[in-house]
Amino acid sequence: MSRTLQLAEQLISRPSITPEDAGCLELLAERLGNLGFHCERMDGGPDHFRVHNLWAVRRTGLPQAKTLIFAGHTDVVPTGPVEQWSYPPFTPTYHDGKLFGRGASDMKTSIAAFIVALEEFLAAHADTPLDIALLLTSDEEGPAHDGTKTVIQALQARQEPMDWCIVGEPTAVRQTGDMIKNGRRGSLSGRLTVEGIQGHIAYPQLARNPIHQAVPALTELAGIEWDKGNAFFPPTSWQISNMHGGTGASNVIPGDVVIDFNFRYSSENTAESLKQRVKSVLDKHALEYDLTWSLSGEPFLTTPGDLVTAAQEAIRAETGLETELSTSGGTSDGRFIAKACPQVIELGPPNATIHKIDEHIVVTDVEPLKNIYRRLMENLHTRLQSACAEQGATA
Prior knowledge:
Elements: H1 3-12, H2 24-33, E1 38-41, E2 53-58, E3 66-73, E4 93-95, E5 98-100, H3 104-124, E6 130-137, H4 148-157, E7 164-167, E8 179-181, E9 183-184, E10 186-195, E11 199-200, H5 210-223, E12 237-245, E13 252-253, E14 256-265, H6 271-284, E15 289-297, E16 300-301, H7 306-319, E17 324-326, H8 334-337, E18 343-346, E19 360-362, H9 366-394
Parallel strand pairs: 3-6, 3-7, 7-18, 8-17
Antiparallel strand pairs: 1-2, 2-6, 4-5, 5-19, 9-16, 10-14, 10-15, 11-13, 12-14
Helix pairs in contact: 1-3, 3-9, 7-9
């Protein structure tokens, strides 16, 4: 059995349901300490929802060094009904060429691949000009208030260098390497409450039905083309997720209706521009309403450059695939890291079973992932060495 799978098993066997870490970070810090990393716990949050964070860094002290960060999360989503699993969710189990367990895809195998790739890379390149760091949290699957977001803010405050970042989220579709995320759409949610006047359904002239009033505005919002997207982002999408109105009785006109909706938006829009367009539609329909907003993350994009090229070359060399760049899917902690780090990508295993009953990873996807991470570091190492040599020759 490979060392990557062995470490993945150790991590999966720890029931780290968000925000719990269940000892994952202690295990990882021990491995990283043996590689010369300075490991710093940056835990946060209230006592009843304690979040576990680890910042581990190995700096060369070279003036020309650049910093590569591996970022990920040790927390997992709840299992759901345990009796529906084919195997106990926190007992790593192999069957039919697959490793089953909660976190197998999202994203404990990626973290195991980080560590083993680092061990192999540093064994071969102890004198690398590449500074390497890991940012690991137990608050990605939860509210994400006291995890990566607050650690990044603290690192910014003390001016920690950050040049490149790989987030190990599961990004592949069919096999490891076929897709990486070089950005993510923004996520903006709204809760709209349209006020009416409650009354007897037989006397509508004495009431005001807020559902009837809201429907024309909602229909207009659903039909708007918010933008056409661009070369990297699909068009902005507006979707209703929930609608609540009525008392439950069949003879009462409700006094209000509450509509939850969400924008997944491209870089062609901003949160403020979307808010203004929604408000103009609601005002046009003369609704009496209250509207609250929640911004989960702004869009970010890493255009092809050193990091994307190094990843593409590594994937091609290890798998023969020409990887697809994509910004599809949900949000990730990359949205926080991108505020401090100019180049951020997400690169991980297939995502077909994430958050599902019987989450698993195909065993043949594991070693290629570790090898991609190692070769990506080698590619950046070579680029830095060449840049150093050129600077020396110029001097």
